[in-house]
Amino acid sequence: MASTEDMDGIAQIRKGIANYVYARTGAHISDATVDCCLDEVRAYATTRGLTLVNAARILCRITSEHLRTHGNDPGAALTTVDAEIKIDGVALLTLIIAQKRIHIQEGTI
């Protein structure tokens, strides 16, 4: 069983992911979506030898930089994320942000 410290860290990362998406879209994401992002954070941390917190921060930073490169247009960023970044976690965050912004524009959120 995970220690309380580990559980607190996971809760902090989950909240950070949700806050990151909300800050960029104004929309909340589901727990299931947060879980998918957390899985990508774990994979990135494992392959890079990072802590989960550092991996989450790096993925969010790379996503923000990629979005900035494309004029903060998640649709444009999404079309190039695989070729330019090649990190699944960044692709997932970019996709989520793009989808949320589309739903907001369409008034479905």
Percentage of residues in DSSP E strands: under 5%
Distance between the termini: 37 Å
The count of DSSP E runs of length 2 or more, i.e. the number of strands, is: 0
Largest sheet: none
Q: Which residue ranges are poorly predicted, with pLDDT under 50 across at least 5 consecutive positions?
A: none
Please count the helical segments: 5
Helix content: over 70%
Shape: globular
The assigned structural class equals mainly alpha
Give average pLDDT, whole number. 91
Report a brief summary of the structure.
This protein has 109 residues and is mostly helical.
Describe the structure in your own words.
The protein has 109 residues and is mainly α. It has five helices and no strands. The model has no long low-confidence stretch (mean pLDDT 91). 81% of the residues lie in helices and 0% in strands. Helix 4 (74-84) packs antiparallel against helix 5 (88-106). The radius of gyration is 14 Å and the shape is globular.
Question: Notable features of this structure?
Answer:
single chain, 109 residues, mainly alpha, globular
Helix and strand topology:
Layout: H1 4-25, H2 31-48, H3 52-69, H4 74-84, H5 88-106
